[in-house]
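Hi there, hope your week has been kind to you so far. Thanks so much in advance, here it is:
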Amino acid sequence: MAKVAHFCSHQRVETRDEKFAQTQMETLLTGSGFTVKREHRLSDADIPDFLISEGGFSIVLEMKTRAKRMQIYRQLERYSKHEGFDGIVLLSGTAMQIPPMIGDKPALFASLGRGWLR
């Protein structure tokens, strides 16, 4: 998970349009050898932006360019109740902290803005 969070937070992604940012991130991830599935369906209501397979683990990656903190957290909390993945990475332009565990899933935050600081 740390490898995915580190990689994502060091990329320069245009954040004005969330879908465009997701397309850019998908290209960057696949170009760097990550196995990526876009909009992986956990249920009819819960569809994270990516499911990434890395080192024998499946990681949900949720991208948010801008959103309310509690709305983001509630969405991650819903995701955590599902089986079929091992951890959650939130990649966001909204500055926030998330706990190290959401439900029974480990969770990490990665900043969308950090890549622009290089």
